[in-house]
Inverse folding.
């Protein structure tokens, strides 16, 4: 099981990387923890691989105004342990705990997993729920894509051929906001059978906003505003179930996934509220 | 078809600078085994699931089968061979596996040894639960894991008691 031949390019700058990506059937190599298995199994056979691991200008994790910027080659493990992420967008770390195993997280990149647009990806749900912006370099110049427009289908994003994701910026959440990520998988570190991220705003003990993102039960993460129904679990479940469309496969039936979503939505919302209260105390 | 382009890849492996000319598609695990003849690193599933090929890249455990050698040229790599003491005796995690019967067929062992070695550097006193979690990313088809968990705890004990470990 070996990858087929490809031309290897290791650019020294972002413009050089974008230039190399103009070539036919090119692909970006960042952490490679999702891409390399696809290459080894020959499910993907790009002709050109553009290795951005040498572009240290893309390794940053920093505050830029009211946003937290994560660069394209910041490793999951760095994001998971970074104090700025913990203080300003704790949901990222809550979700990252479910991403594969520590050994994979040492090499895999958080931005790469968003660019990969896996519907089972925890960080795709986080990006969608928070309304993150995906920053792209292209020959025509830089552009930004809102997470809501970025995820088009399973492993399919709004990224065009020849474009490079340089980083993702997440809106900072002040202490009125609490968050949670909950999922069930067959083994810890595996792809989720179903998962839910929740975001709740609490002011003076009252919930002022509540929304969730459900992953692994549709082609893209589903963001649902549940402010109108969060107090009534029956109505909440009806609203959610009408929007999801899980599949049956060897890991779980569609019915079981629906059952998981019902439970996880309530769990995630409850935990998010507790988290908000914790951040305020 | 044109001959495949080759890249000179230089790595510091277990403290020794080594190099070979390889195609870009050469996986780090294959680079170590085939090009450098260091067959201690084992290759199991070749898609990142089993953990047998786990090596240390700049001290951090990573999957050798999920990295291209060319991509990490210039880095320092430690394999299971590099975790023996300088006088050739077993390193502390290796010794713990020996004492606790942490292996049977031994195929998965190199990946466990490297993973646990790195884990204990950061968490020198794991509970049994933490030891279990530390090895969750590695598969073993023989032991049922009980003795591997014992090996993690035994290695921590040995380190505490000041047993020699050069790494």
């Amino acid at each position: 099981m070996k990858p087929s031949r490809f031309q290897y390019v290791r650019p020294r700058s972002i413009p050089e990387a974008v230039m190399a990506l103009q070539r036919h059937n090119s692909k970006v190599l960042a952490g490679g923890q999702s891409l390399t298995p696809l290459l080894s199994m020959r499910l993907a056979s790009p002709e050109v691989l553009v290795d951005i691991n040498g572009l240290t200008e893309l390794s940053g994790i920093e505050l830029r105004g009211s946003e937290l910027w994560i660069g394209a080659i910041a490793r999951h493990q760095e994001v998971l342990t970074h104090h700025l992420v913990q203080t300003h967008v704790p949901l990222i770390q809550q979700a990252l705990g479910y991403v594969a195993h520590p050994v994979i997280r040492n090499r895999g990149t958080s931005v790469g997993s968003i660019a990969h647009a896996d519907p089972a990806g925890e960080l795709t749900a986080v990006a969608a729920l928070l309304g993150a912006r995906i920053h792209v370099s292209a020959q025509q110049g830089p552009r930004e894509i809102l997470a809501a427009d970025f995820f088009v289908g399973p492993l399919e994003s709004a990224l065009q051929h020849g474009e490079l994701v340089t980083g993702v910026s997440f809106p900072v959440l002040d202490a009125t906001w609490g968050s949670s990520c909950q999922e069930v998988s067959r083994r810890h570190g595996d792809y989720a059978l179903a998962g839910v991220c929740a975001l709740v705003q609490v002011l003076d003990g009252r919930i002022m906003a509540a929304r969730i993102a459900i992953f692994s039960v549709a082609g893209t993460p589903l963001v649902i505003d549940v402010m109108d129904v969060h107090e009534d679990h029956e109505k909440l479940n009806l609203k959610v179930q009408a929007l999801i469309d899980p599949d049956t496969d060897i890991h779980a039936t569609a019915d079981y996934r629906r059952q998981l979503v019902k439970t996880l939505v309530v769990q995630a919302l409850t935990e998010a509220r507790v988290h908000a209260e914790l951040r305020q105390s | 078809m044109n001959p495949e382009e080759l890249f000179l890849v230089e790595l510091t492996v277990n403290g020794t600078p080594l190099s070979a000319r390889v195609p870009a598609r050469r996986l780090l695990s294959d680079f170590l085994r085939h090009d450098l003849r260091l067959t201690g690193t084992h290759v199991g599933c070749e898609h990142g699931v089993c953990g047998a090929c786990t090596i240390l890249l700049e001290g951090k455990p990573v999957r050798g089968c999920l990295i291209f050698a060319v991509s990490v040229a210039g880095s320092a790599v430690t394999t299971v061979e590099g975790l023996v003491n300088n006088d050739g005796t077993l390193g502390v995690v290796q010794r713990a596996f020996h004492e606790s019967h942490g292996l049977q067929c031994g195929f998965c062992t190199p990946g466990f040894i490297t993973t646990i070695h790195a884990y204990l550097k950061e968490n020198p006193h794991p509970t049994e639960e933490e030891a279990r979690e530390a090895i969750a990313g590695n598969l073993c088809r023989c032991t049922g894991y009980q003795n591997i968990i014992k090996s993690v705890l035994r290695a921590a004990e040995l380190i505490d008691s000041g047993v020699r470990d050069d790494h």
About this structure: DSSP finds eleven helices and 14 strands in chain A.
